[in-house]
């Protein structure tokens, strides 16, 4: 009988719930994979009024938005620059009282067909060894710059790719998780893993590739036990107001989005929320899961792109839209531990 993995999800300040998910192979610990010590930083709430689908106003306490963590489209192989970004993040987390945690994705672009590396957003190729070195130095910078006075803040660092290029396959997923494992092992040898937890990450979008190949990637990643990946993709064309496994773009549907973001035993999710419609799409995916898959999708928080496109939602707007739409329904009501924003390196 296979062991059912546990993923711990932030529910309220000082409170944890356990998500019992599909059969898998891993028991994930609270401290190792979703450390959410932000609770004390989230005690301050504001009141908000929303109108549910029936039109009846409902007043409730809205969770305060946590600080927004910077993620990056990587454009170079510079380990010095990566160290500096990690150092900045470490100093920022340590500057809070009490200290806080963060979640960051380093997006290296699509995987090459031969499994040797990735094509970054600027068209430059980076090898797997270089990706590992860049991620290791980001972890080093974070660990070093939290300082001796902060040994408890934790960075969840995702090595990111997408489903738009050649190696979107089971083999590609295995290649990616093995890189994550290699970086985690290196960090352990240096002591960085006391404050940095490595994970995979994938910008999974219907417009980038087929659902079947993307699911194969997720299954390949999950075949190596002990690691999570963060889905920071979109739900292009998915329903905004219905939950009947409705169609999305390029042959995808709500089931595919659920599986890749939460149904896979390795999956957690921080969806792209660039526009209000995207928040509604993801709220419907979570409600579909609550109604048809045994439980709502629990979100890490929104990923916005305001720094790159000022016509899109600000971090505050992305946070508010996603949180409000999720909390329309008691079956999807939740708080979120992180707020993410993508930047150019």
Provide structural commentary.
The protein is α/β, with parallel strands linked by helices and 345 residues long. It has a single domain, classed as Alpha-Beta Barrel (TIM Barrel). Helices cover 32% and strands 22% of the residues. The protein is built from eight helices and 15 strands. The strands form four sheets. It has an eight-stranded parallel sheet. The protein is globular, with a radius of gyration of 19 Å.
Output the CATH class name: Alpha Beta
Categorize the overall geometry. Answer: globular
Major sheet details? 8 strands, parallel
Architecture in CATH? Answer: Alpha-Beta Barrel
- Give the tally of β-strands: 15
Indicate the multimeric state. single chain
- The proportion of strand residues reads 15-25%
Distance between the termini: 46 Å
User: What spatial order of strands do you see in the largest sheet?
Assistant: 13-12-11-10-6-5-15-14
Q: What is the element layout, followed by pairings?
A:
Blueprint: E1 6-12, E2 15-20, H1 30-33, E3 46-51, E4 57-62, E5 68-73, H2 79-94, E6 102-107, E7 110-111, E8 117-119, E9 125-127, H3 128-145, E10 155-162, H4 170-190, E11 196-203, H5 211-222, E12 229-231, H6 254-263, E13 267-269, H7 276-292, E14 303-304, H8 315-326, E15 339-344
Parallel strand pairs: 5-6, 5-15, 6-10, 10-11, 11-12, 12-13, 14-15
Antiparallel strand pairs: 1-2, 3-4, 7-8, 8-9
